[in-house]
């Protein structure tokens, strides 16, 4: 049984496993941390001599520079890393199932299962196995069943759930100073001992009172609950933004007034064109599926509405653009500023910008896209996935990726702000105006720019959640 962790293996070098275990290595120089992945290109990027890391995250490069080669290693040799480790994080992807039972809702646990089977097959000493990926309730139980059914004699596995709450764009700060670290374990003596071993790892830099020890199922459900409630706040504020637009109220004033109530709190109340990211929608759909499987249809319907409202918000915003541009955008050129699902990340998973562009494309608009961080290949991949029967070549007839915001806005009828990159606040809006067809429309889907300032230049401005228009 493992009591003192000296070697950690992390299976999965993605958005969660990479930054999390890099920070553990930085903060625990006495522990050897090896992050492994099947994807060689990804591992090569983590190992690249000039630190061209596979994900963009402020502060991450600095962490990797300090720890890589000291006690932080990246490798494709999964078996060796499993064998050497006392503690293994399973941090593989858990996308929404695309086919079979629960398609479109349930999490696809294939990768978790394969990783678990691999651990059982190759481990020849006892391990603590930590479920890090967001998974439906009771996955730990399935992992335990697989491990116990396949383990060698004298090899013991203790399972912990340790969901990650970091947000992209602020991952390093979130990891350095987490609101809490949640560790779920069986309440047996062995479960508690495993929990203590992982607690000691985090205690190297996280205050003890922020490390919460709970039961396995509570831990698993808390992750889904936290994301569902965060997403629900955004859907609530977005629902109110529609009322604001219809009445002349101002959503920022409403959010501010509501947020002053300490029971509600001021954070995460920014109206937007809709939430994106790999977690919110996936986790809510997971919760919907779980509720349905538990024969709780009212609960399922309640949570499903959070996702429905998000779809509505994206549709509503697209429709406002069409309505305002005199009911048609066919053949009109428009600029979409931002493609990532939020600022300070190159990640595009479930980004609202994808839906907007899909909608504009179906109206036969000509579209210029600009994002400071997203790779061009990623943009084409995301768009071909949502436009049925398209290829990058076919899309290039009407969609252009621009090298700068200014370039994207040249000769367009309208500018749409889809991601809250701060550079869109400070671009030379006079220059943008001079280069645009008139009337020059701006649609601010992120409450980012100073509408009054833009109106003084001559723009017709529509801001999400503001009654006053143009
Ligand atoms: C989220 C959770 O915040 C994090 O705790 C969890 O571990 C993973 O999922 P992430 O998806 O990286 O993190 O980003 P987040 O900052 O939560 O933003 C999600 C989406 O909501 C983005 O599209 C963002 O633009 C949007 N958002 C966020 C709003 O529209 N308004 C807000 O007030 C906050
Ligand atoms: C509420 C608002 O709190 C107050 O700001 C507003 O001015 C009037 O409406 P009130 O109805 O007096 O005040 O009581 P409140 O403490 O908000 O509780 C309302 C109901 O919610 C009660 O039945 C309470 O038992 C229940 N509640 C409250 C819960 O079930 N769980 C909670 O965590 C909090
Ligand atoms: P997340 O956002 O949850 O971190 P990512 O998709 O960014 O998800 O990363 C998950 C990583 O896990 C991918 O790079 C994938 O190649 C890797 N992976 C999946 N299954 C295995 C496995 N059995 N062994 C090693 N790596 C795996």
UniProtKB/TrEMBL annotation:
<keyword id="KW-0560">Oxidoreductase</keyword>
<feature type="binding site">
    <location>
        <begin position="92"/>
        <end position="96"/>
    </location>
    <ligand>
        <name>NAD(+)</name>
    </ligand>
</feature>
<feature type="binding site">
    <location>
        <begin position="270"/>
        <end position="276"/>
    </location>
    <ligand>
        <name>substrate</name>
    </ligand>
</feature>
<feature type="binding site">
    <location>
        <position position="263"/>
    </location>
    <ligand>
        <name>substrate</name>
    </ligand>
</feature>
<dbReference type="GO" id="GO:0051287">
    <property type="term" value="F:NAD binding"/>
</dbReference>
<feature type="binding site">
    <location>
        <position position="42"/>
    </location>
    <ligand>
        <name>NAD(+)</name>
    </ligand>
</feature>
<feature type="domain" description="UDP-glucose/GDP-mannose dehydrogenase C-terminal">
    <location>
        <begin position="335"/>
        <end position="451"/>
    </location>
</feature>
<feature type="binding site">
    <location>
        <position position="349"/>
    </location>
    <ligand>
        <name>NAD(+)</name>
    </ligand>
</feature>
<feature type="binding site">
    <location>
        <begin position="133"/>
        <end position="134"/>
    </location>
    <ligand>
        <name>NAD(+)</name>
    </ligand>
</feature>
<feature type="binding site">
    <location>
        <begin position="12"/>
        <end position="17"/>
    </location>
    <ligand>
        <name>NAD(+)</name>
    </ligand>
</feature>
<feature type="binding site">
    <location>
        <position position="168"/>
    </location>
    <ligand>
        <name>NAD(+)</name>
    </ligand>
</feature>
<dbReference type="InterPro" id="IPR008927">
    <property type="entry name" value="6-PGluconate_DH-like_C_sf"/>
</dbReference>
<dbReference type="InterPro" id="IPR017476">
    <property type="entry name" value="UDP-Glc/GDP-Man"/>
</dbReference>
<dbReference type="GO" id="GO:0003979">
    <property type="term" value="F:UDP-glucose 6-dehydrogenase activity"/>
</dbReference>
<dbReference type="GO" id="GO:0006024">
    <property type="term" value="P:glycosaminoglycan biosynthetic process"/>
</dbReference>
<dbReference type="InterPro" id="IPR036220">
    <property type="entry name" value="UDP-Glc/GDP-Man_DH_C_sf"/>
</dbReference>
<feature type="binding site">
    <location>
        <begin position="341"/>
        <end position="342"/>
    </location>
    <ligand>
        <name>substrate</name>
    </ligand>
</feature>
<feature type="binding site">
    <location>
        <begin position="164"/>
        <end position="168"/>
    </location>
    <ligand>
        <name>substrate</name>
    </ligand>
</feature>
<keyword id="KW-0520">NAD</keyword>
<feature type="active site" description="Nucleophile">
    <location>
        <position position="279"/>
    </location>
</feature>
<dbReference type="Pfam" id="PF03721">
    <property type="entry name" value="UDPG_MGDP_dh_N"/>
</dbReference>
<comment type="pathway">
    <text>Nucleotide-sugar biosynthesis; UDP-alpha-D-glucuronate biosynthesis; UDP-alpha-D-glucuronate from UDP-alpha-D-glucose: step 1/1.</text>
</comment>
<feature type="binding site">
    <location>
        <position position="37"/>
    </location>
    <ligand>
        <name>NAD(+)</name>
    </ligand>
</feature>
<dbReference type="InterPro" id="IPR014027">
    <property type="entry name" value="UDP-Glc/GDP-Man_DH_C"/>
</dbReference>
<dbReference type="GO" id="GO:0005634">
    <property type="term" value="C:nucleus"/>
</dbReference>
<dbReference type="InterPro" id="IPR028356">
    <property type="entry name" value="UDPglc_DH_euk"/>
</dbReference>
<dbReference type="GO" id="GO:0006065">
    <property type="term" value="P:UDP-glucuronate biosynthetic process"/>
</dbReference>
<comment type="similarity">
    <text>Belongs to the UDP-glucose/GDP-mannose dehydrogenase family.</text>
</comment>
<dbReference type="InterPro" id="IPR001732">
    <property type="entry name" value="UDP-Glc/GDP-Man_DH_N"/>
</dbReference>
<dbReference type="InterPro" id="IPR014026">
    <property type="entry name" value="UDP-Glc/GDP-Man_DH_dimer"/>
</dbReference>
<dbReference type="InterPro" id="IPR036291">
    <property type="entry name" value="NAD(P)-bd_dom_sf"/>
</dbReference>
<dbReference type="Pfam" id="PF03720">
    <property type="entry name" value="UDPG_MGDP_dh_C"/>
</dbReference>
<protein>
    <recommendedName>
        <fullName>UDP-glucose 6-dehydrogenase</fullName>
        <ecNumber>1.1.1.22</ecNumber>
    </recommendedName>
</protein>
<feature type="binding site">
    <location>
        <position position="446"/>
    </location>
    <ligand>
        <name>substrate</name>
    </ligand>
</feature>
<dbReference type="Pfam" id="PF00984">
    <property type="entry name" value="UDPG_MGDP_dh"/>
</dbReference>
<feature type="binding site">
    <location>
        <begin position="279"/>
        <end position="282"/>
    </location>
    <ligand>
        <name>NAD(+)</name>
    </ligand>
</feature>
<feature type="binding site">
    <location>
        <begin position="223"/>
        <end position="227"/>
    </location>
    <ligand>
        <name>substrate</name>
    </ligand>
</feature>
């Amino acid at each position: 049984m493992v009591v003192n962790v000296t070697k950690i293996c992390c299976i999965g070098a993605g958005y969660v496993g990479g930054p999390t275990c890099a920070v553990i290595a930085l903060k625990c120089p006495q522990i050897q941390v090896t992050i492994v992945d099947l994807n060689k290109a990804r591992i090569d990027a983590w190992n690249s001599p000039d630190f061209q890391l596979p994900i963009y995250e402020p502060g991450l490069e600095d962490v990797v520079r300090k720890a890589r080669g000291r006690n932080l290693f990246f490798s494709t040799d999964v078996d060796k890393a499993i064998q050497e480790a006392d503690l293994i994080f399973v941090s593989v992807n858990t996308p929404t199932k695309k086919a079979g039972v629960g398609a479109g809702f349930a999490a696809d646990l294939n990768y978790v299962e394969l990783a678990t089977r691999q651990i059982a097959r190759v481990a020849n000493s006892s391990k603590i196995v930590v479920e890090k990926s967001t998974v439906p309730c009771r996955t730990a139980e399935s992992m335990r069943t697989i491990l116990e059914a396949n383990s060698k004699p004298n090899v013991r596995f203790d399972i912990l759930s340790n969901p990650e709450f970091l947000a992209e764009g602020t991952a390093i700060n979130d990891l350095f100073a987490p609101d809490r670290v949640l560790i779920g374990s069986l309440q047996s003596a062995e479960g508690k001992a495993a929990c203590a071993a992982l607690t000691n790892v985090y205690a190297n830099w996280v205050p003890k009172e922020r490390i919460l020890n709970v039961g396995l199922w509570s831990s698993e459900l808390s992750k889904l609950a936290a994301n569902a409630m965060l997403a629900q706040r955004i859907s609530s504020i977005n629902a109110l933004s529609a009322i604001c637009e219809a009445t002349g109220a101002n959503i920022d004033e409403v959010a501010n007034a509501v947020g002053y109530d300490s029971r509600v709190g001021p954070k995460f109340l920014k109206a937007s064109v809709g939430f994106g990211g790999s977690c919110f929608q996936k986790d809510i759909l997971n919760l919907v599926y779980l509720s349905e499987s538990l024969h709780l249809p009212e609960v399922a319907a309640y949570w499903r509405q959070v996702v429905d409202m998000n779809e509505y918000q994206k549709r509503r915003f697209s429709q406002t653009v069409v309505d305002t541009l005199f009911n048609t955008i066919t053949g009109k050129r428009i600029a979409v500023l931002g493609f990532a699902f939020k600022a300070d990340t190159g990640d595009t998973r479930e980004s609202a910008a994808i839906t907007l562009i899909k909608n504009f494309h179906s109206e036969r608009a000509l579209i210029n896209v600009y994002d400071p961080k997203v790779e061009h290949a990623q943009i084409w991949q995301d768009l071909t996935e949502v436009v049925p029967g398209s290829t990058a070549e076919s899309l290039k007839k009407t969609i252009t990726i621009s090298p700068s915001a200014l370039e994207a806005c040249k000769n367009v009828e309208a500018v749409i702000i889809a991601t809250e990159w701060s550079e869109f606040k400070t671009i030379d809006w006079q220059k943008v105006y001079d280069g645009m067809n008139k009337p020059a429309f701006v649609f601010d889907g992120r409450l980012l720019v100073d509408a009054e300032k833009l109106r003084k230049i001559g723009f017709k401005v529509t801001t999400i959640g503001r009654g006053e228009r143009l």
